[in-house]
């Protein structure tokens, strides 16, 4: 007699992974975690909105995905970003409540075994082990830093664990992830990146990677295009938008693409001498993994990026300039900086997912 369970395939545990749609950085740093989940025999379920969801769908077309309510976060054209965020806080709160309802519906349909939220406040359920990913345990906001940090830590405390994408020894994120809150269960998961370092012939003198919320992404793009018109160096400009609109030719030395997926962008970065980008933390993790020379332009009014740009300069890793002040000839400063060195420390082993 053949046992009833003979030939049956063991069902994989389903883990929802949901990054914030605020630029592509949150989604990009979830890619190595999704790959690790697959490698350790889980079934990732994707959830986000906007370009973040589009990126994950393009990277993992074989995985189930769901659209979540949008936070509709946009930057101010001026530096009054804190005021704009305060005004938008009711919208963000409403979105987090709505996304919790959406997560419950997904759970009913998928029978989830775990949840991983990258900075989405409402992506958690009490009955399911839930993880929150952030490098900003402390949220810098000028003279309101204590208030914003305490509020964020109260949100983090509602999750079972908080994963910090940094290494305890190197602490690229600096005071952003330094904490003494005993109510938080923190795990450092290493300086994770979706990329691998390769030794390739240099094809580009400069790679420009644009990203982040509008309108600041477009404002920087417009400024850079003006700067590039007279450039004779070989440049690749990755706009960081999922759009069918094609920009007019800048000059014969400049190649422009709207976006690149992981393997294409990995190759482009490895083939480039210098990378010009925002000082977003996910970008810093990628550049550290690939041991690149870089120049940063922090998003105006975003205290976190301004702090990280200054920190990289203080560590003699990379120079930076404000968006208003930037000129292409400033890239000459890069030669005086050491560039990034990879720590090669990551903790995406099976033990990380024991919670599920």
Largest sheet: 7 strands, parallel
The CATH H-level superfamily of the largest domain is Glycogen Phosphorylase B
Fraction in helix: 25-40%
Mean pLDDT figure: 90
Give a summary of the structure in a few sentences.
The protein has 356 residues and is α/β, with parallel strands linked by helices. It has helices at 25-39, 50-59, 81-110, 145-156, 216-228, 262-270, 281-290, 303-314, and strands at residues 14-19, 43-48, 65-67, 114-118, 130-133, 161-164, 186-188, 204-209, 235-238, 254-257, 272-277, 293-296.
Q: How would you characterize the overall build of this protein?
A:
It is a single chain. By secondary structure, the protein is of the alpha/beta class. The protein has 2 domains: 14-192 and 345-353, Rossmann fold (3-Layer(aba) Sandwich); 204-336, Glycogen Phosphorylase B (Rossmann fold, 3-Layer(aba) Sandwich), CATH 3.40.50. Helix content is 31%, strand content 15%. It is built from 8 helices and 12 strands. The chain has a 7-stranded parallel beta sheet with strand order 3-2-1-4-5-6-7, covered by helices on one side. A 5-stranded parallel beta sheet has the order 10-9-8-11-12. Helix 1 runs parallel beside helix 2. It is globular and about 60 Å long. The mean pLDDT is 90.
Explain the layout of strands and helices:
Layout: E1 14-19, H1 25-39, E2 43-48, H2 50-59, E3 65-67, H3 81-110, E4 114-118, E5 130-133, H4 145-156, E6 161-164, E7 186-188, E8 204-209, H5 216-228, E9 235-238, E10 254-257, H6 262-270, E11 272-277, H7 281-290, E12 293-296, H8 303-314
Parallel strand pairs: 1-2, 1-4, 2-3, 4-5, 5-6, 6-7, 8-9, 8-11, 9-10, 11-12
Helix pairs in contact: 1-2
């Amino acid at each position: 007699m053949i046992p009833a369970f003979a030939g049956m395939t063991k069902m994989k545990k389903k883990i929802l992974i949901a990054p914030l749609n605020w630029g592509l950085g949150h989604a990009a740093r979830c890619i190595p975690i999704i790959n690790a989940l697959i490698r350790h025999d889980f079934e990732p379920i994707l959830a986000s909105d906007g370009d973040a969801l589009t990126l994950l769908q393009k990277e993992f077309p074989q995985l189930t995905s769901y659209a979540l309510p949008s936070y509709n976060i946009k930057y101010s054209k001026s530096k009054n970003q804190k005021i704009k965020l305060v005004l938008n806080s009711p919208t963000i709160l409403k979105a987090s409540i709505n996304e919790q309802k959406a997560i419950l519906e997904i759970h009913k349909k998928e029978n989830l075994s775990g949840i991983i939220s990258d900075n989405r406040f409402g992506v958690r359920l009490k009955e399911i082990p839930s993880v929150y990913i952030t490098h900003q345990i402390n949220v810098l906001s000028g003279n309101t830093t204590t208030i914003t940090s305490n509020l964020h830590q109260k949100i983090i405390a509602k999750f079972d664990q908080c994963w910090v994408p940094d290494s305890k020894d190197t602490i690229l994120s600096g005071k952003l992830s330094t904490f003494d809150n005993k109510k938080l269960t923190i795990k450092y998961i290493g300086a994770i990146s979706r990329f691998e370092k390769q030794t390739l012939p240099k094809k580009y003198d400069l790679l420009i990677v644009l990203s982040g919320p509008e309108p600041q992404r477009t404002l920087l793009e417009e400024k850079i295009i003006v700067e590039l018109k007279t450039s004779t160096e070989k440049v690749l400009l990755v706009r960081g938008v999922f759009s069918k609109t094609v920009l007019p030719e800048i000059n014969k030395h400049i190649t422009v693409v709207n976006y690149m997926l992981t393997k294409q962008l990995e190759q482009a970065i490895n083939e480039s001498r210098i990378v010009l980008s925002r000082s977003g933390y996910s970008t810093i993790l990628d550049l550290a993994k690939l041991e690149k020379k870089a120049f940063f332009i922090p998003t105006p009014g975003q205290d976190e990026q301004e702090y990280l740009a200054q920190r990289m300069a203080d560590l003699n890793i990379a120079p930076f300039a404000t968006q208003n002040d930037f000129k292409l000839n400033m890239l000459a400063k890069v030669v005086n900086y050491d560039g990034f060195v990879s720590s090669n420390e990551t903790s995406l082993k099976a033990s990380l997912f024991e919670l599920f």
